[in-house]
Amino acid sequence: MSASRDHDADMDAEGGSGVSGGRIERAMNVLGRVLQYEVSVGALIEVALWLVIPYLAIGFVWAALHSEETQRIQARLEKVFPTGADVAALGLTAVLWPASIQIADACPPN
Question: Is 27 helix (H, G, I), strand (E, B) or coil?
Fold first, then answer.
């Protein structure tokens, strides 16, 4: 009989088990505590810069190692604006390096 009462006590209001409901409640409590921390805008900008630096470093290395893709993007950009297309292609390849594989394939050499 006590096992039945324990089981009934573990049941939540929606009829689910108390174990999964307890896990969700604990997770929501942890999430609530994390979201209560106050963070300054300056700290968010600093975190963004620390994340951007290695991303751009990888991008410039990728652009240097895959110059043929950069040249294809440059050829496409020269049609839009001829001045500075080489710098724009390098910057675009470095910034969009994860997607530049598909972008370069979409830019046929003309």
Answer: helix
Q: Using only C-alpha atoms, what is the Rg of the chain?
A: 27
Domain extents in the chain: 2-35, 41-106
77/72 Cα distance (integer angstroms):
9
How does DSSP classify residue 52? Answer: H
Using CA atoms, how far apart are residues 73 and 84, in angstroms rounded to an integer? 12
CA distance 28 to 20: 12
pTM (2 d.p.): 0.57
Question: Per-residue pLDDT for 61 more than 90?
Answer: yes
Q: Per-residue pLDDT tens for 27-50?
A: 999 999 888 888 899 999 999 999
Geometric angle at alpha carbon 28, from 16 and 22, rounded to 5°: 35
Whether residue 110 has pLDDT greater than 70: no
